[in-house]
Amino acid sequence: MLKLYNYKAKVTKVIDGDTIECDVDLGSNVYIHEKFRLNGINTPELTGSEKEEGKKAKEIVTSELLDKEIIIKSDKPLKTDKYGRWLATIYLDGINYNETLLERGVAKNID
């Protein structure tokens, strides 16, 4: 049975268009700092032939998420990618941000 868990978090750093670092509120004034990969999407890389598109994706995500309060929805059991980043769906102002990046053409679907 798949369970979803919601966590409040503050975005502290944008690594690239699909990777962020957050301070996650676990409740009772307990916070952890974690790196998250936006689940189901991929943005252009910051190196190689996609460099310019990758920089633009990072700039967009930085302007929209940095220092903002978000909701992180994650599957239970929690899953990580091959780099140890937690896979999560991000909500900004109640809207699925992963889907927003897809709809705007900033990201591509990888499911």
TrEMBL record:
Keywords: Hydrolase
A Pfam family the protein falls into: SNase
Membrane-spanning segments: none
Record InterPro entries: SNase_OB-fold_sf, Staphylococal_nuclease_OB-fold, Thermonucl_AS
Annotated SMART domains: SNc (SM00318)
EC number(s) recorded for this UniProt protein: 3.1.31.1
Domain TNase-like: 5-111
MF terms in GO: 3' overhang single-stranded DNA endodeoxyribonuclease activity; nucleic acid binding
Name of the protein in its database record: Thermonuclease
Organism of this sequence: Methanobrevibacter cuticularis
Source organism phylogeny: Archaea, Methanobacteriati, Methanobacteriota, Methanomada group, Methanobacteria
